[in-house]
Amino acid sequence: MTMIFGIPVQAFLGQLLIGLINGSFYALLSLGLAVIFGLLRVINFAHGAQYMLGAFVAFLLLQYFAVSYWLALILAPIIVGLLGAAIERTMLSRLYKLDPLYGLLFTFGLALTIEGTFRYLYGAAGQPYSVPAALAGGTNLGFMFLPNYRGWVVVISLVACIGTWLLIEKTKLGSYLRAATENPVLVQAFGVNVPMLLTLTYALGAALAAFAGVLAAPIYQVSPLMGTNLIIVVFAVVVVGGMGSIMGAIITGYMLGIAEGLTKVFYPEASNIVIFVIMAIVLLIRPAGLFGRDV
Known about the structure:
- This protein has about 300 residues and is mainly alpha-helical.
- The protein has two domains: about 35-125 and about 145-225, no CATH class; about 225-295, no CATH class.
- It is about 70% helix and about 5% strand.
- It has a two-stranded antiparallel ribbon with strand order 1-2. A two-stranded antiparallel sheet has the order 3-4.
- α1 (about 10-40) runs parallel beside α5, α1 packs antiparallel against α8 (about 195-215) and α2 runs parallel beside α4.
């Protein structure tokens, strides 16, 4: 039997795959957080609830309207993004001129309200959501058996992350978004609707969280608590990558997911804390994070 560092190769590569899958969700969610914080300077504690909402919207669309997974993958982010836009326009926008703590407390209370409502309606137990037929089964790679759906999650998450980075860094809309956060008065003077740009930014972050929720639904059960269990880890990923760094969120998400997966091979007892240990070490050496800018 082939060994890697004294570990059977199948076990090593299996945990590497699990780490890559977890890293895909970490990257997508931390990307949404980084977009909102980087452009709006809001620490969005409701991000985990928006991730959960994405999964529940897909589940409810299937239950009541027989909407397929593929259509839900498009509709759920749009629905949650529109809800996020309404929240930003009617409530969150009123807090921009106040201390950032008010935005944090508001989004934290919003998360508790959303999760509490779904827990009251559906209970704490998870709801099943089937893998689409086109992605059922798996592929024998010789050294391991790769479930098709998990391979799809890794690929589509990477595409979504790179697409978002290109949108913000390489397009005219992205340049407007970045300029509006640096000097909103000047951008407004050029005839750009800055409040609309800020609303679109929050909607984009919420839509990314919902997209991750739909991807997660067939792997994990759809539960009101699914966001709560993940959001603390995602905040640690954002801190390590650098608050507001788009590329930092993507790279660090995958990197820490793989680190967590490999820790389960070599030292399983530490797998639940390895990301927080890495966060502590990074903050001691570079407080702004790996890709953050020093103030």
